[in-house]
Amino acid sequence: MRLIRYGFRRHATYWAAALAGAFTNTVFGILQAYVLIALWSTRPGLGGYDLADAVTFCFLAQAYIGPMQVFGGGLDLPERVRSGDVALDLARPASLQLWYLSEDLGRAAYLVIARSVPPTLVGALVFGIAPPAGPGTWAAFPVSVALAVLVSFGWRYLVALASFWVLDDRGLAIVSLIMTTFFSGLMLPLVIFPGWLGELARALPWAAMVQVPADVYLGTTSIGGALAFQAFWALVLLGLGAFVTAAARRKLVIQGG
Amino acid sequence: MIEAEGLGRTFKVRGSLVHAVRDLSFTVEAGEFVGCLGPNGAGKSTTIKMLTGILAPTTGRLRVAGFDPTRRRTALARRIGVVFGQRTTLWWDLPLKDSFELVRLLYKVDRVTFRRRLDELCEVLDLSHFLRTPVRQLSLGQRMRGEVAAALLHDPPLLILDEPTIGLDVVSKAGVRDFLGALNAERGTTVLLTTHDLGDVERLCRRVVLIDHGRLAFDGTVTQLRALVPGEVTIEDAVARLYLSSRPDPRTRHPRPAPDPPSVTA
């Protein structure tokens, strides 16, 4: 759908915000890189990463914040449920879920350019992060990023749908924020989580947003397994989203007359 | 075009059931121009939302443009145009023209038809000089003309408007009214509108449906509506009496419908 282009253009209007975001991501990338350098100097080979892997991971994670909307939100749905404007979305000949998905893909495409490329380039210049090894990785990496966006949308859409049931979705948004930043691998790579916590964290959908696409880039995982893992969670979350959308339609109360 | 039978919708408000609409039956034939009146909170908007497939009715049977609105929401959306006077369907950050282009893609209108349709609408609604202005910078009158145009780009046989003239100045209001009148007369588009502006009703609607307390309180012509109240009264007086008389107890003091209104099914 051409709505994707609209989402792109709409977010391109707010280029100053994206620029500020890219700057922040870069600075945090540098800070986090030093922390990880300290960590890996005392524990070389931790979690199967060498020092270069760890630094690369940290800049990739920063680059994913924008397109994967790791801090949550990015969808107008809760606001439109609160104001009752969701009625208009439902008066269109389009599925509510696909409607928001198209706009979100446009948003993600724009943020890849505006917020992912700058920190990665700075990381490459300052710390010399490694380019992906081999054509297989080059080909798989964009697919993995796209799947990560789908998983991220699937999750955020479910959180947004909750606004059909609760009057204020902020509490839920905060829970989502904590789960996502922690379990995606943004704070620390999931590979260094010990024991069952690590097993669990690497099996949850949030891992598909940051950890897995980073591993695909680094070549520290099997490409097929990683993409299948992401595709699985994308399908589960989108399917659940479709199911909950149907339930929300039955429950719908249009606010504000 | 519209067939409603025993339509009802309840909402749960703090544990108790509220009947927003109950046992509402009416039909609208193709080519009619029907005004839907009712005091605030009477159930007009709920009815409109059921007709457009946005809300599912709790009871009753409903067919709009040949579809069951709840089951075939998207199919129905292609056959009707909807304008909500208090909300905007246009894209806030985009020029009006781009909103139209998105509507074209959404409703799968081919380029040639779209071009012709847009030219017509631009001419009669006088849109040409602000087609390139972002929607957020349009005046309310300009925006409302844009809304009406957007709702008609796919040439729907049924147009449903919820308070289309709200907040408009005299001139803009006259412009929108003239357009709707001509649309109904020349293209034969069926129009259903809700309004609190009785000027809309007097100038446009051959038939009036009055909803009160979620029920059908009157269905007939404007003349019949006026005749409900003895003496030389304005339509405002007649409607005010209807609203007031139903207030204490809707069951016992409901105004009698006119003797033989044209298409009452209740």
UniProtKB/TrEMBL annotation, chain A:
Keywords, in A-Z order: Membrane, Transmembrane, Transmembrane helix
Protein name as it appears in the record: ABC transporter permease
A Pfam family per the record: ABC2_membrane_6
Organism: Planotetraspora thailandica
Entry keyword NADP: no
Chain ranges passing through the membrane: 12-40, 46-65, 108-130, 136-159, 171-196, 216-244
TrEMBL record, chain B:
Domain ABC transporter stretches: 2-238
Protein name: ABC transporter domain-containing protein
Sorted UniProt keywords: Antibiotic resistance, ATP-binding, Nucleotide-binding, Transport
MF-aspect GO terms: ATP binding; ATP hydrolysis activity
Chief location bin: membrane
GO biological process: response to antibiotic
Lineage: Bacteria, Bacillati, Actinomycetota, Actinomycetes, Streptosporangiales
GO cellular component: plasma membrane
Signal peptide residues on this chain, from the entry's feature table: none
Organism: Planotetraspora thailandica
